[in-house]
Amino acid sequence: AGNALWGGRFEAGPGEIMEEINASIDVDKRLARQDIAGSMAHVAMLAETGIVSHADAAAISAGLTTIAGEIEAGTFPFSRALEDIHMNIEARLKDLIGEPAGRLHTARSRNDQVATDFKLWVRDALDGLDGEMADLQRAFVTVAERHAATVMPGFTHLQSAQPVTFGHHCLAYVEMVARDRGRIADARRRMNESPLGAAALAGTAFPIDREMTAAALGFDGPMRNSLDAVSSRDFALEALAAAAIAATHLSRFAEELVIWCSAPFRFVTLSDAFTTGSSIMPQKKNPDAAELVRAKVGRIIGALTTLLVVMKGVPLAYSKDMQEDKPPLFDALPALSLCVRATAGMVRDLTVNEDAMRALASKGHTTATDLADWLVREVGLPFREAHHITGEAVLAAERAGKEIADLTLAELRAVDGRITEDALTVLTVDRSVASRTSLGGTAPERVRTEAQRWRALLDAT
Ligand code: ARG
């Protein structure tokens, strides 16, 4: 009545609830491709080292190929009773090829097997994300090139602060996504060592060749400690941490889109492809995709938290707790991928309402700093004094019910007699942004150069 794979020691099968809590097949069937790749590498090594015969290895490989086809075709008979993907595949192999199937698990445990499969899956997911994130950067760069000189209000505290260019704003995200890609690349580099051959926890007495299986699976080499190999999940945590940070960036941009396409702003219009209507209010066009990007970060951060908590109390080496490592990754990484692709789509389709941006850019005395800078530069005042005088000019403008840029020369000179006609020119938003030529500044010429630099970098990869 016991399990086909370990039945020897058991007199009865698991209880119904035990089967329900123990089975992971509904989740880890997603590792089928990786599990077969791992087994292929393992059996080739077993044959090469003479641990199994070449004939048995050939039968096993052929059986695994058949199984891969069945999984692909959706005809594979997944069974809950067989607990997980590893035992489902091994049991099927036995059905297909008989006795040699029992030799596949020589010098291997499900502990190193699952660590290997999971790493392969996470590695694939990270590779996919990198390409999608590069695509998102390209979308931002294209908008930045087009809007290098489009003036918008820059905010601090969501209060109008100084004019910036929309291109500059887009390039800020290109930088953030570049660091996100860097974190993902770091995680990938660090994780790319093979757990296979660590066996249950202590290594094996068989003369295995771990270098061989590591190379076959695209790893840089084998992990150096068998206990570490089967019980560490920091590779998954690191992937989730990188994902959570990346998702946070996307969420901030999503929040900006939601604000920008609201009626009081109207900075941008989202395409029909990324918005929805209302079932009752005919006029509505809602930024649902942006809102969902903003919301999904909750799941991604939650996934990181989940796995941190799962792992924090697990003594070395493997414990079944670690079976709970997969749902957070299977949820979070595809969710991030979707968010990246949705954001790239929204950026690509964006209609920028330059007039609305420009109109708001000069509201709120946004060029006051430029007058203070002028007083420093042309009159030679210390910045603090210039700041004070400009503050009085803002007050005068407020009293007159206008913007500082709309004060007449006479009105300005009433504040401070040292102000001349020349000062009026620095109060325009275009002059303001054009003057910000410092490295990393918002001046259109800077933005063009930076966009070009990014275009070249992204084209080179
Ligand atoms: N389904 C298990 C997991 O996902 C595979 C490893 C089981 N190992 C064990 N010793 N029970 O973690």
Identify the notable features of this structure and list them briefly.
arginine biosynthesis; 461 residues; two-stranded antiparallel ribbon; amino-acid biosynthesis; mainly alpha; cytoplasm; two-stranded antiparallel sheet; 4 strands; binds arginine
Polypeptide structure, described:
The chain is 62% helix and 4% strand. It is mainly alpha-helical and 461 residues long. The strands form two sheets. The protein has a two-stranded antiparallel ribbon. Strands 3-4 form a two-stranded antiparallel sheet. Helix 6 runs parallel beside helix 12, helix 7 runs antiparallel to helix 10 and helix 10 (234-260) runs parallel beside helix 12 (326-349). The two termini are 57 Å apart. The relative contact order is 0.11. Bound molecules: arginine. Residues 24, 28, 84, 110-111, 114, 318, 320, 322-323 line the site of arginine.
